[in-house]
Design a protein that fits this description.
Blueprint: H1 2-71, E1 86-92, E2 96-106, E3 114-123, E4 126-138, E5 145-149, E6 153-155, E7 159-162, E8 164-167, E9 171-173, E10 176-177, E11 181-183, E12 187-190, E13 199-202, E14 204-205, E15 214-215, H2 230-240, E16 243-244, E17 251-256, E18 260-269, E19 274-277, E20 284-287, E21 291-301, E22 306-310, E23 314-320, E24 323-328, E25 341-349, E26 357-362, E27 366-368, E28 375-384, E29 389-391, E30 402-414, E31 421-424, E32 427-439, E33 458-465
Length: 468
């Protein structure tokens, strides 16, 4: 019996030993699995952190290039003069070098101000984890304004503005607006020409219904900087063969919807002369605004994204198929010989889309003459550098003509006083009864060629791209 008990105890000890070995093995196995899981989770966490950091690094690349554009707005090669991509180290303020970003810059296409910046970022410890973002910035053109003037203006109750409007002077706003109406003045003196008796009025005031969109004072727009390099435009037109000079009376351009234009030399003006207000509205001058005879020079394709330059006065009309700026100026530039543009008839796009755009630039005035249609449509941005955009006032009542409507799809930029309508009390006595200005939003970052821009690059869009 004692021998059997001894054997039983011995067998129990062996069983316990096996149990301990098995349990120890299970513990080691579970511990190693647990440690592997911890290691995996750590790696996963680090990878997630690296992915987040990669996005921040890519953003840092965008911010760097924004800074670069602010200092070198025409440099799309990162200051190196070499094509990209441009690779930069990224330093954390506390830990030093941690990552890298690579930039690819797409400069503006012809006729656009939009720069595309693609930035790829990664953490150096995880070079295979990359984030890519693409951002677009553009310089707004002055075509962002439906109306921009350097003088006091009055919009009557039958006049409407769609889009942003600004004056460096005061604004009497009796018409309607669907966007901001801003003045650079806190108050101004409203004169009899605006229906007042030299009274002090707010920078923007009137009977218009949308006064919640009026804002004053705001910073003025410096008209001294609204200067197109007419000499450069002339050179561009000369190089592409769309430069004209030497006429005795001026030129006449008619756009055709097939993407071409006819140009005529004006050989005589109508003998029926009118007495019309002079440029300062202080007297009358004799003027003939209508073509009596002309000779066709030829039919030519519209030089899209380029310039037609006339070193003389210009009459213009027709249906444009293309993107073009037309300028009229005389050199050397002297106030007594500044060139003007007459909108002879309807001037329209073949379609109001992003493929068609017209800039009209006159050294002096852009004028709608007396013989223009009773319902006139003008598609384009009109810029009178030294003069005004207007329909004149005819001094003798028998020469006056009250028309129905005028619509401008684009914008008006005028140095001096603008008007389409002349009133006595509340009655239109000359010009157009109803006027409508409509903002052409496609021209904000894709203006007509050589059209002036305003301010710094502005954010347009942000997008994360998939990594290959």
């Amino acid at each position: 019996m004692p021998t059997q008990i001894h054997k039983l105890k011995t067998n129990q000890q062996g069983t316990i030993l096996i149990f301990v070995v098995v349990m120890t093995g299970l513990f080691v196995f579970m511990l190693s699995g647990y440690l592997s899981m911890i290691t995996f989770q750590q790696k996963l966490t680090n990878a997630k952190v690296a992915k987040i950091q990669a996005l921040h690094i890519a953003e840092a690349g965008i911010n760097y290039y924004r800074w670069h554009l602010a200092h070198e707005p025409e440099d799309y090669q990162d200051g190196t003069g070499q094509p990209g991509p441009y690779v930069h180290d990224y330093y954390d303020p506390t830990t030093g070098l941690i990552g890298t970003y690579s930039l690819e810059i797409t400069p503006p296409e012809s006729g656009s101000t939009v720069v595309t910046i693609k930035s790829v970022g990664w953490v150096n410890d995880y070079p295979d984890i990359k984030r890519t973002i693409e951002v677009k910035y553009g310089k707004p053109s002055l075509a962002k304004y439906s109306f921009l003037t350097n003088n006091d203006i009055w919009l009557g109750e039958d006049e409407n503005v769609s889009g942003e409007m600004h004056s460096n002077g005061g604004i009497r706003m009796d018409g309607t607006n669907d966007s901001l109406v801003t003045s650079a003045l806190t108050t101004y003196t409203c004169t009899p020409s605006h229906g007042c008796n030299n009274e002090t009025k707010d920078g923007v005031w009137g009977a218009g219904p949308n006064s919640d969109l009026w804002d004053f004072p705001v910073p003025q727009v410096d008209f001294n900087t609204i200067t197109l390099d007419l000499a450069t435009m002339k050179s561009e037109a000369q190089s592409n063969g769309d430069y004209y000079s030497g006429s005795n009376y001026g030129y006449h351009i008619t756009f055709l919807n097939d993407g071409t234009y006819n140009i005529y030399t004006v050989t005589s003006l109508a003998t029926g002369l009118y007495q019309i207000d002079d440029d300062d509205f202080v007297g009358c001058e004799t003027k003939s605004e209508q073509i009596a005879s002309e000779v066709l020079i030829g039919n030519y394709p519209v030089p899209t994204d380029s310039v037609i330059f006339v070193e003389d006065d210009l009459w213009i009309d027709g249906t444009l198929n293309g993107k073009i700026t037309v300028a009229a100026a005389r050199f050397p530039a002297q106030p007594s010989t500044y060139a003007s543009i007459y909108i002879n008839d309807n001037l329209q796009y073949v379609a109001r889309d992003d493929t068609n755009a017209l800039g009209l630039v006159a050294q002096k005035n852009i004028q709608v003459p007396r013989h223009a249609p009773t319902d006139l449509t003008i598609d384009g941005v009109l810029l009178a550098q030294q003069g005004r955009v207007y329909r004149g006032y005819y001094c003798w009542w028998w020469n006056r003509s009250v028309k129905n409507s005028i619509e401008v799809y684009g914008g008006i930029i005028t140095n001096k006083i603008w008007t389409w309508t002349w009133v006595s009390g509340s009655t239109t006595v000359d010009g157009y009864n109803n006027t409508n200005s409509i903002f052409h939003n496609n021209l904000l970052y894709s203006p007509p060629p050589y059209f002036p821009t305003s301010g710094q690059y502005q954010f347009i869009s942000w997008e994360e791209l998939p990594n290959s």
